[in-house]
Design goal:
single chain; mainly beta; five-stranded antiparallel β-sheet; four-stranded antiparallel β-sheet; 0% helix
Length: 208
């Protein structure tokens, strides 16, 4: 969703070369200019003028996916160096940096320079950022007893828990493990997807 909440970005699952901007109010769809890429994921920068994408070149589909900064209109696609194979890519607050990683999290402060590792005292997956720009992560080794429904804030390389990043036990009673966890774009709340029997549950913590 764009910063002003007026448009949203869709990736066509039947044609993964196609990205579409949708006007929330009218439903009008505007395809974006194709760049010879086949996309796996895409998200908007805070300025609403660029995308962070995970993609392959159409003529090199056997290659490992990479991360790239993709202008919405005009300009060249900038492939981030040493970004092949990195998942869970996120744009940092203000669009000032990009971070990505499952296990090892790396950070790009410039799109034309090599990334630097983010110091964290546990193996974890990047989920997003809170409103002050701190990393929010999942770490299997740090989960509370009987569950995997906690996200953690990274403070000076250490993982710290806060109630709004932990799914209450009463909410997940009888449910399976959390399949997907997300952080809202404003960094103030978290969402969790899991199953209870045949039902799919979409639960949120931290909403006011």
């Amino acid at each position: 969703i764009s910063p002003d909440g007026k448009t949203t970005l869709l990736l066509d699952q039947d044609n993964r070369q196609l990205l579409i901007m949708v006007d929330v109010a009218t439903g009008r769809r505007t395809p974006l200019e194709t760049r010879g890429l086949v996309y796996e994921s895409a998200s908007l920068f805070p300025d609403g003028k660029q995308l962070l994408v995970t993609a392959r070149w159409k003529d090199r589909m056997s290659a490992v996916p990479f991360l790239a900064v993709h202008p919405i209109s005009g300009g060249a696609v900038e492939v981030l160096p040493f970004s092949e194979g990195f998942g869970n890519a996120r744009v940092g607050p203000g669009g000032k940096f990009i971070a990505a990683g499952r296990g090892l999290i790396m950070r790009w402060d410039r799109w034309d320079e090599s990334p630097k590792p983010v110091k964290i005292d546990a193996t974890c997956n990047l989920i997003g950022f809170d409103e002050s720009g701190r990393y929010i992560v999942r770490a299997a080794s740090k989960q509370p007893a009987g569950g995997d429904a906690a996200l953690f804030v990274v403070n000076d390389g250490r993982l710290e828990s806060e109630p709004r990043w932990t799914l209450a036990p009463s909410h997940r009673r009888g449910a399976g493990p959390v399949a997907v966890a997300v952080v809202s774009t404003d960094g103030k709340s978290a969402g969790f997807w899991l199953r209870r029997g045949a039902a799919e549950l979409y639960l949120a913590e931290g909403l006011s």
